[in-house]
Design brief:
Helix content: 40-55%
Shape: elongated
Structural class: alpha+beta
Strand content: 25-35%
Distance between the termini: 41 Å
Number of helices: 6
Number of strands: 4
Oligomer: single chain
Largest sheet: 2 strands, parallel
Strand order of the largest sheet: 1-2
Order of helices and strands: HEHEHHHEHE
Length: 155
């Protein structure tokens, strides 16, 4: 159904957002979830505002997509990428099932980073520089090093 279906679905979603944000909320008000599969096909700028305010209206969204690249493709420039990151920041719970490399890197970056010690060293025989090395043994060399690296938690 292509573009026509996207337009109708987007309109229905927008009307639901507006209706939920106009309702009078009480402790007895039911929780409403809007569920969208392949959300990259119907994502709109109104989703940013709704996602950031929906908890106050006892509402929420469940968005499903194949990968973060699908969302970035819907908004292909740097401003679009920042907008997608903002939307994802408004969503409280994120699940990544069988992610591609970019999605896994994004998810790992969301969890944070930590410092990890890295130890290294080398050793070896220096060979014979003089006849006394044959009598007293060969020279040997050794070195050790230590550093700290900041790495992602899911590395």
């Amino acid at each position: 159904y292509g573009d026509n279906a996207r337009a109708i679905y987007g309109l229905v979603k927008h009307i639901c957002h507006k209706a939920l944000m106009r309702r009078v909320v009480t402790p007895e008000s039911p929780v409403v979830l809007l569920v969208a599969d392949e959300v990259q096909n119907i994502i709109a700028e109104s989703d940013w505002g709704f996602s950031s305010e929906s908890r106050g209206y006892r509402a929420g969204s469940i968005y499903a997509t194949q990968s973060i690249n699908s969302l970035y493709a819907a908004y292909p420039n740097e401003a679009g990428r920042a907008a997608v990151d903002t939307l994802l920041g408004c969503l409280n719970t994120k699940m990544c099932c069988l992610p591609d490399h970019q999605t896994a890197s994004w998810a790992s970056g969301q969890l944070g980073k930590h410092w990890q010690p890295v130890f290294g060293g080398s050793g070896g025989s220096g060979g014979y520089d003089s006849p006394s090395d044959l009598i007293f043994g060969s020279k040997s060399t050794a070195s050790a090093n230590f550093s700290m690296q900041l790495i992602e938690l899911l590395r």
